[in-house]
Write a structure and sequence with these properties.
The strands form 2 sheets. A 5-stranded mixed beta sheet has the order 2-1-3-4-5, with helices on both faces. A two-stranded antiparallel ribbon has the order 6-7. The chain has about 210 residues and is of the alpha/beta class. The protein has 8 helices and 7 strands.
Length: about 210
């Protein structure tokens, strides 16, 4: 069984020492298997430099048939956005990788099977996330209606398109995975984007000769 450790702090001025000390209490802790990001929590897990490296490693052929556990100090280290946290946990679960949270005291997998208790916790979080999505959608629609009434919102101009440069800038993780030769399906599962979006990005990259022949 392999144990990997992930920590995150928001700014350079902060320290991850508390998280590290909690990791050191475990006999399985090895510094070389510790990945640490200094990045805001609202950045999706798969778009963080060290988190992306960690995911790529534990899902590589080297650990394909191994029991792997990702240890975090608390669930909020995965992100502040509940939707992103749930998606991250789901991606690990789909790859049969266990996530162990020290603060919350649960593991997502037990003997390779989904932990019912963890499922309850994640289910509750999912309900809250759905409420959050609905509130955001309602507020957005209300804001648009008010803006339209005041003549300040006209929507996207007919025929307007997102620039190729902007498209690549918005999806750096997809660009990275395409360069590595991953399939549309694999990239969609990792990034949570549609295959249509991935295909559009690939077309731009091919046009700019950004993909190896």
């Amino acid at each position: 069984m392999y144990f990997f450790f992930y920590s995150r702090i928001s700014t350079v001025g902060q320290t991850a020492q508390r998280q590290i000390e909690n990791f050191k209490k475990l006999p399985t802790y090895r510094p070389e298997y510790h990945f640490a990001d200094k990045i805001q929590g609202n950045v999706p897990f798969m778009e963080r430099p060290e988190a992306s490296k960690l995911f790529d490693l534990v899902t590589s052929k080297e650990f394909l048939k191994s029991d792997v556990t990702i240890v975090i100090d608390s669930i909020d280290r995965l992100g502040r956005n509940l939707i992103d946290i749930l998606q991250t946990i789901q991606r690990f679960t789909e790859n049969k990788i266990n996530v162990q949270s020290l603060k919350e005291g649960f593991q997502t997998l037990i003997d390779g099977r989904e932990n019912p208790i963890a499922n309850i916790v994640i289910s509750v979080m999912g309900s809250i996330a759905q409420m959050e999505r609905n509130r955001i959608k309602e507020r957005t629609q209300e804001g648009i209606k008010i803006a339209q009434a005041n003549g300040k919102f006209k929507g996207r101009k007919p025929g307007s398109l997102q620039s190729d440069t902007r498209l690549l800038e918005r999806h750096p993780l997809i660009v990275q995975k395409l360069k590595k030769g991953l399939t549309y399906r694999d990239i969609a599962e990792i990034c949570g984007k549609s295959t249509a979006t991935i295909a559009k990005i690939k077309k731009v990259m091919e046009k700019r000769n950004l993909l190896a022949a």
